[in-house]
TrEMBL record:
One of its GO terms (cellular component) is plasma membrane. InterPro entries: Brnchd-chn_aa_trnsp_permease. It is a multi-pass membrane protein. It comes from Sinorhizobium medicae (strain WSM419) (Ensifer medicae). Its main location: membrane. The chain crosses the membrane at residues 43-65, 115-141, 148-166, 191-210. This is AzlC family protein. Belongs to the AzlC family. Keywords: Cell membrane, Membrane, Transmembrane, Transmembrane helix, Transport. Pfam families: AzlC. It comes from the Bacteria. Coiled coil: none annotated.
Length: 217
C-alpha cells in the first residue's frame, strides 16, 4: 500500500490548495476529507462550488461520482466472512478505489481479516486527510496543479490499479467500452454524467464478455 499512499499525497495537497482558493477554511477542508473521504466527489464538489452552495447539485454530483461504490462494496463484501457486522460497516466507510483494488487482490490469495484491512485502510485515510489539510494551509504557495505536474497524479494512480486487474482481451473490451462511453458523454452531456456513462458501459461490456466466455466454454 505504501506506493499508493505516496501517490495520493500530491492529490490531497492539490485538493487542499483548490479548496483554499474556493474560500473553504482549513477546518472545513479537513472535515470534508475526513467525513466524505472520496477524492473524486470532493474534486467535483469544488468544481461546482459557489457561494451560496447548491446543496442539491453538490449531493447529486457526489452520488453520480460515487455510484460505483455500490458495485465495489457488493464485490468485496462477499469476501469478508471473518468480519463482524460492525467491522464490515466500518470497512465500507473506509472503502476507496485503491483500498478496494488491494483488498480484491488479497482476497484472491488468502482470507481477508479485519486487522489486515485496517492496516491497509487507516494509513491511507489518515494521509489523505492530513495531505488535504497541509494543502489548505499552504494555499497559494503550491500554485496550479498543472504548473507542478500534479494534474496527472490522479489518472496515474488509476492506470496502475487497472494494470493489476488485466486478464486479457476481455478486460481490454471492458476498458474500451467504458472509455468510449465516458468520452462521448463528456463531449455531449453537461456535468459529471460521463462517470455514470463509463461505469454503465463497463458493466454491460463485462456482462457481454462473460456470457461469451461461458458460451465458448
Amino acid at each position: 500500500m505504501a506506493p499508493l499512499i505516496v501517490a495520493v499525497m500530491p492529490i490531497g495537497l492539490v485538493f487542499g490548495a483548490i479548496a483554499a482558493t474556493k474560500g473553504l477554511s482549513s477546518l472545513e477542508t479537513f472535515l470534508m476529507s475526513a467525513l466524505v473521504f472520496a477524492g473524486g466527489s470532493q474534486f467535483v464538489a469544488l468544481d461546482i462550488w459557489a457561494h451560496p452552495a447548491s446543496w442539491a447539485a453538490l449531493g447529486f454530483s457526489a452520488l453520480l461520482v460515487n455510484i460505483r461504490h455500490l458495485l465495489m462494496s457488493a464485490s468485496i463484501g462477499t469476501k469478508m466472512p471473518a468480519f463482524s457486522g460492525p467491522a464490515k460497516y466500518a470497512a465500507m466507510l473506509l472503502l476507496a478505489d485503491e483500498i478496494w483494488a488491494m483488498a480484491e487482490v488479497r482476497a484472491g490469495e488468502t482470507r481477508l481479516t479485519p486487522a489486515w484491512y485496517a492496516g491497509l485502510a487507516l494509513p491511507f485515510y489518515l494521509v489523505w486527510v492530513m495531505a488535504g489539510l497541509a494543502g489548505s494551509l499552504a494555499g497559494a504557495f503550491l500554485g496550479g496543479p498543472k504548473a507542478l505536474g500534479l494534474d496527472f497524479a490522479f489518472p496515474a494512480v488509476f492506470i496502475v490499479l487497472l494494470i493489476g486487474f488485466w486478464k486479457g482481451r476481455g478486460t481490454g473490451a471492458v476498458l474500451a467500452a467504458s472509455a468510449a462511453a465516458a468520452v462521448l458523454a463528456h463531449q455531449f452531456l453537461p456535468g459529471v454524467w460521463y462517470i455514470a456513462a463509463g461505469a454503465a458501459a463497463g458493466v454491460i461490456a463485462a456482462l457481454f464478455t462473460g456470457e461469451r466466455q461461458e458460451a465458448c466454454a
